[in-house]
Amino acid sequence: MSWKTLDDMDLAGKNVLVRVDINVPVENGIVTDATRIERIVPTIRDILAKGGKPVLLAHFGRPKGKPDPSMSLRIVQPALEKALGQQVTFVERPSRDFIDAQPRDAVILVENTRFSAMEEANDPMMSQFLAGLGDVYCNDAFSAAHRAHASTEGVAHLLPSCAGRLMAEELGALEKALGTPTHPVMAVVGGAKVSTKLDLLGNLVTKVDHLVIGGGMANTFLAAQGINVGKSLCEHDLADTAREILGKAAAASCQIILPRDIVVAREFKAGAAHEVLPPEACPADAMILDAGPATVDYITSVMEESKTLVWNGPLGAFEIAPFNMATNAAARRAASLTKAGHLISVAGGGDTVAALNAAGVADDFTYVSSAGGAFLEWMEGKELPGVAALNR
Predict the structure, then answer these.
(1) Which of 21, 208, 240, 255 has a beta carbon 3.0–4.6 Å from 141's, enabling a disulfide?
(2) How far apart are CA 162 and CA 140, in angstroms?
(3) Directed axis angle between helix 325-339 and helix 293-305, to 10°?
């Protein structure tokens, strides 16, 4: 990787534009989960320690290119001040003179970049305006790096640029997982629909040694092999696509792992009556809602022989018991192998983070990304504009 980090930059006496992701959940004007805010603190503190003045650029919500008071970044200012342990200066209409006039140890938060339609259009005028506010650009928002916006991509071409601590950590973890991984590499991909992860599956079969397909996606693959999946969630129209992926995996010597046994029920609710059956024995009036214990045993046995694990998506309907068994059991084994130093484990995607938190193991993986779309596009092998701009 050719991108620079804060360690490569001279920041003394300079204004440092820092693109961050503090698009946090808010209820009644109060931040309910400050995780994203807390994760940018090391970058801001390091900039201050190196004599730079952090000028934070961020979006909040979807204001559609015009000011909306309900999506003002003023809302997150108190949580940001709490996380940093110091005052943060909020500014609606920033100017170079205003920023220069602030104390050297000030932290400045600029109003929502998406209040201007020029942001999402990646308008050169906005990029030039932003560049005029600073001397150095630092991108610490991997989760927004798949967007080619003025504050994520455009301005990076106009100033000396680098990755922040969080961005560098994320890129380093992903490089270990898929860029230059230690083999054997295993991937777990779950979720409801194959259609949302076609690019991901197509890329992974050429990169990994073992690919576990779980969740509703697995039903489509089972059906493509002539197995009746009853009333299960299934994209029958993608049977040919599923067979193509299986063929591509075979040609690439990638082992596809599908459920060896299934957990079925007639209704989708907590504690529903259920049974474990072979995949080909799914009753016509039942739904497959999880992988069975034999599947978990096989997945964990392969995991124990692997060196690298990439995880995106649950193995079953993890939101309700007892259909969280497979996801929880596999995640806990991955966590224990990681803690023992036998496995590099990188996970990401919205449902993935929720599933690992529910299993109580998110902190035990090597790295868990909170970047949904950007993480998925990276796994799909796509170039992320915000990262590519740093490489240049």
Answers:
(1) 21
(2) 9
(3) 20
Are 272 and 361 part of one and the same domain? yes
Q: Identify the active-site residue in 172, 350, 372, 381.
A: 350
Kindly state whether residues 127 and 264 are assigned to the same domain: no
CATH at residue 328? 3.40.50.1260
Give the per-residue pLDDT at 381. 83
Catalytic residue among 14, 19, 36, 147: 36
Catalytic one of 231, 373, 381, 382: 373
State mean pLDDT over 212-226.
Answer: 96
CA-nearest of 1, 362, 48 to 174 is 1
Catalytic residue among 193, 260, 307, 339: 193
Beta carbons within 8 Å of 106's beta carbon, 6+ residues apart: 53, 87, 89
Whether 207 is covered by a domain: the verdict is: yes
199 shares its domain with 338: yes
Instruction: Specify the number of domains making up the chain.
Output: 2
Q: What percentage of the chain exceeds 70 in pLDDT?
A: 99
Residue 392's pLDDT band (cuts 50, 70, 90): low
**Which range marks the domain in which residue 239 is found?**
181-379
